[in-house]
Design goal:
It is built from 8 helices and 4 strands. The chain has helices spanning about 15, 20-25, 35-50, 65-85, 100-115, 120-125, 125-140, 155-175; strands at about 60, 65, 85, 95. A hairpin with a 6-residue loop joins β3 (about 85) and β4 (about 95).
């Protein structure tokens, strides 16, 4: 950044200047898979474990993950649990519920232990992280959700939440902020 206080003026992206309201209001599409549930759970637990040891970010599976990734993972798990979504992308057709999630957490903790090694796993904060991540994923209400995320089959809530997103994104585009377009596929 040099002597500049921010990077706002460094680059204007033409692709964000042409974003339409329809682009911003599009409900995310895509398949939901068991591997997605597993990855969200594993990455979320691993990041929380490093956060508990006062590390701000962690390399996981060739990506540098941080609190945003953990929050996205947690909220996606929370939504899938709350709405009992069907994991349709891998042909399993099972619905996400507390029992399935509990089994996935146990299996992913075993995988984390295997990947980290027994000694590192024992010294790490993985068990505490697992409790925190699991508890927050299973809460009945979302706490301090970082984004306004659309909810499948609730058009009234979707419209209100997406209007907030639309206003915020249009403000950012008009101000020339560099930004990524679209919502995470969390539904």
């Amino acid at each position: 950044m040099g002597n500049d206080p921010n990077q706002i003026g460094t680059m204007k992206r033409d692709d964000v200047a042409n974003i339409t309201e329809e682009d911003l209001l599009q409900i995310p599409r895509g398949a939901r898979t068991m591997e997605g549930l597993r990855l969200n759970t594993r990455v979320g637990i691993q990041y929380v474990a490093t956060w508990l040891t006062r590390t701000g970010s962690v390399p996981l599976y060739n990506l540098m993950e941080d609190v945003a990734t953990a929050e996205i993972s947690r909220v996606q798990n929370w939504q899938w649990l709350k709405y009992g979504v069907e994991l349709d992308g891998d042909g399993l057709g099972v619905k996400v519920n507390r029992e399935l999630f509990g089994r996935v957490v146990e299996e992913e903790m075993a995988r984390i232990e295997n990947e980290a090694g027994k000694e590192k796993f024992k010294k790490g904060m993985y068990k505490a992280a697992c409790k925190i991540f699991t508890r927050q994923s299973l809460r009945l209400e979302v706490i301090q959700q970082a984004a306004h995320i659309p909810i499948r089959d609730d058009p009234v809530t979707n419209k209100a939440k997406l209007e907030l997103v639309r206003k915020d994104k249009l403000r950012e585009v008009k101000a020339g902020y560099m930004m990524e377009v679209g919502l995470h596929t969390l539904v």
